[in-house]
Design goal:
The complex is a heterodimer of chains A (about 160) and B (about 180). A 5-stranded antiparallel β-sheet of chain A has the order 1-3-9-5-7, with no helix packed on it. In chain A, strands 6-8-4-10 form a 4-stranded antiparallel β-sheet, with no helix packed on it. Chain A is built from 2 helices and 10 strands. Chain A is elongated and about 80 Å long. By secondary structure, chain B is mainly β. Chain B has 1 helix and 10 strands; from the N terminus they run αββββββββββ. In chain B, the strands form 2 sheets. In chain B, strands 2-3-9-5-7 form a 5-stranded antiparallel β-sheet, with no helix packed on it. Chain B has a 4-stranded antiparallel β-sheet with strand order 6-8-4-10, with no helix packed on it. Classes of the chains: A alpha+beta (about 160), B mainly beta (about 180). At the A-B interface, helix 1, strand 1, strand 2, strand 3 and strand 9 of A face helix 1, strand 1, strand 2, strand 3 and strand 9 of B. Strand 10 of chain A pairs antiparallel with strand 1 of chain B.
Chain lengths: ~160, ~180
């Protein structure tokens, strides 16, 4: 019976170690809020001025960049027949040690573009490698670019990638 | 005892199945290896951008025109004001025009003309204002301009009686399809 108890204790310890090992090796990259389709509507202007930009900041992403090397987040899009302009940036709040990295300037999303950095220098260790941030989309259209009645709407499939830097 | 054996076997199976996977996710780098972007995770989101037809027109400034003199031998002088009032326009659409009308006719013998400053690529024409809309600017498309002039000209015929403190009329400009 003592042997049984001993084995059980060893098993419990091994189980705990295994869980911790798996946990510490996991990477995560997911939507924390939002994540569904977004619709941006440019519909107002002050007389004499260009149309007012439409914005959306309802999407939040979370990452745990446990790749063992510094990592970054990039963005690209596919938008066949694109007529208007769309931009995205990542706003990362102060997270008490988490969310470390360098926020890059707003990126213009152009159909077929190469991946562009929006957040770089994510460290390899905790707590800095974990973080979250809000995606800020901004749609813009000058009067010269016309309207959707002439060109139809732009539909983007925006891809964010967490990868080694 | 049998129950304990079962639990032990299940535990061993769990160890065999999952621990190697947990440790195999990131192999240790080789000495001197250059980190490569071999691992990545992606998220996708659909974003639709729609731009509505936007047509905006605004006017600023009131205009006061007083006819109070005449050249001997001729009728009363014509008076004009091209600086008191301006307009701003935005349209992201093609083939627009601006029409104008007044809310009520002036007394017989009094005439009010208006000429709008010409936006880029459009054609402006001076018109006599009445309660029926007339085209002032045609061929407007895809522009955003401010401070465009509105030039009013009033005249009165010799047989029109004085009208005291004057007659106030509201001029309505409308941006619409050609």
């Amino acid at each position: 019976m003592k042997l049984v108890a001993f084995i059980a204790k060893i098993a419990a310890v091994l189980l705990l170690i295994a869980h911790l090992a798996i946990e510490s090796r996991a990477q995560e990259f997911r939507f924390n809020a939002g994540g569904g389709p977004i619709s941006l509507l440019v519909q107002t202007a002050t007389a004499g001025s260009e149309p007012t930009d439409a914005t959306d900041n309802g999407t939040e992403i979370y990452w745990d960049a446990n790749f063992g090397v510094p990592t970054k987040i990039t963005v690209s899009t596919t938008a066949p027949g694109q007529s208007f302009r769309l931009y995205v940036s990542l706003s990362v709040p102060s997270q008490g040690g988490g969310g470390q990295g360098v926020v890059k300037p707003e990126v213009q999303l152009i159909d077929g573009m190469l991946d562009m950095d929006i957040f770089t220098d994510i460290p390899t260790s905790l707590p800095g490698r974990q973080g979250f941030g809000s995606l800020i989309y901004r749609a813009a259209a000058t009067v010269a670019e016309g309207n959707s009645n002439e060109h139809s709407d732009d539909t983007h499939l925006v891809t964010f990638t967490l990868l080694a830097q | 005892m049998r129950r304990f054996k079962t639990i032990s076997w299940l535990f061993l199976v769990w160890i065999a199945l999952f621990i190697p996977v947990g440790f195999a996710q990131i192999p240790p780098p080789l000495p001197g290896a250059i980190p490569m972007a071999t691992l990545s995770m992606t998220l996708g989101q659909s974003v639709n951008v729609s731009v509505q037809q936007i047509n905006e027109l605004s006017i600023s400034g009131d205009v006061h025109l007083t006819i109070s003199a005449a050249t001997p031998g001729l009728g009363p002088d014509t008076v004009s004001d091209a600086v008191s009032s301006t307009y701003n326009i935005t349209t992201n659409d093609a083939a627009k025009k601006i029409v104008a009308s007044i809310d009520a006719a002036f007394s017989p013998g009094i005439s009010l003309f208006v000429l709008l400053g010409q936006p880029s690529g459009a054609i402006s024409t001076q018109q006599l204002l009445s309660t029926t809309s007339v085209d002032l600017v045609t061929g407007i498309g895809y522009l955003a301009e401010t401070g465009l002039s509105i030039s009013y000209t009033a005249n009165v015929s010799i047989d029109a009686p004085p009208n005291g403190s004057g007659e106030t009329r509201t001029v309505t400009l409308t941006l619409m399809d050609n």
